[in-house]
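MT21C methyltransferase, pasting as requested.
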Amino acid sequence: SPTDSPVTLKILQNWVPKISHYFDKEHYTYAGHQIVIQESIEHFGAVVWPGALALSQYLESNQEQFNLKDKKVLEIGAGTGLVSIVACILGAYVTATDLPEVLENLSFNISKNTRDMNTHKPEVRKLVWGEGLNEDFPVSTYRYDFILASDVVYHHTALEALLATMAYFCQPGTVLLWANKFRFSTDYEFLEKVSNIFDTTILAEFPESNVKLLKATTRKN
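Structure tokens follow.
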């Protein structure tokens, strides 16, 4: 069946070339909307990585398979907010989360790009992987249809906490969509750990960018 093998894609040039006086702004178009992203040099989380482009593009092109309209979506490690903005355009109730030092730029990008849209108002919250999850996001009240993660595997000290966070939020019925550039053996080791915990499918590969896009769901006992 077609689901057995990943589709091979390339990241399209979805950004709009703009004569801009600011070197720190990137212009993209997804789902018919122009998105302007302000990057910040100080933080890893404030640059648009290829996994975010791959995931945004995939969500836009596969709305029948992954219909985000009126769904509850949590993005972990949201960075500049591009993926959360795209999910919002596609009609989701979005909660974008990241480390405290990234939130100001994240909030700025999300509010700037969604304020004039007729969409659910996205929420931006602090989430440090593996910390305070029960207190800040008790499972009884916070259930998500989709967890989105892109380029979250680069900071190799945080991988246990990242895996614990994925496991915490990925309840029965939740779909985790994770896109990442695979560069190091540690990336593949993390993939193996994800595959041990969840039912995983590689949905798409972007070989030119070394990006893989995975779907993970809780294992049926």
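Note for the archive: The chain has six helices and ten strands.
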